[in-house]
Specification:
It is a single chain. By secondary structure, the chain is of the alpha/beta class. The chain is built from seven helices and six strands. It has a six-stranded parallel β-sheet, sandwiched between helices. Helix 1 crosses helix 2, helix 2 (25-45) packs parallel to helix 3 (65-88) and helix 3 (65-88) packs parallel to helix 4 (103-116). It is globular, with a radius of gyration of 17 Å. The protein starts with 5 loop residues before the first strand and ends in a 9-residue tail after the last helix. 29% of the residues are buried.
Length: 224
Amino acid sequence: MNPLKHVAIIMDGNGRWGIKYKNSRNAGHRAGLNTVQRIINESINQKIKYLTLYAFSTENWKRPKKEINYLFKLLENFLVSRIDELHKQNIKLKIIGSKNFSLKLNKLINLAEKKTSKNDKLQINLAINYGSKTELIIAFKKMIKKKENINEKNFQKYLQTKNIPDPEILIRTGNTKRLSNFLLWQLAYTEIFFEKKLWPAFSKNDFKRVLNKFKKVKRNFGSI
């Protein structure tokens, strides 16, 4: 059975689900938060140590301003209303991406990270304003500035996922088969599962089905 420490998820399909069932993209984003909670709870049950969720990419700024504002309001509300619960569950929250937000949101993020920094049951890496190409360029620039030898070990020290194992699994919901500028370095040997269901419809049983599939995969890492 394959060991499993880290699951990464591209939570795709909120807007399409909202239009289909509620005639509102924002309703889909709200519903997607319920799925997040289901997956967090099941990750704890499965003793997964790291869960990385792609919430907002650097390319998502192209969306309508009204929708962007709503997404960040949802995040603010989540941090205000749920951070104490996450803390009680011994969950650590880490933001990856450029923290170029409002003063209020930046303050909430910093407080949430500080409050949960010692927790160790599950680490949630929330990718917000994240783009892997930007992450890689910044890492290379830092490495060159430090005049370090260019090798994998040194390079990984400058990634935002420093000290976090690479994901064994990537799940993308929404019936779209691409990586969308997400963890391009870290996913080099990750098993990828593309799911047809839209994110709000992705259930605990769907998650468990993917985990069980992964356990049966023969992982060679280049050997036979």
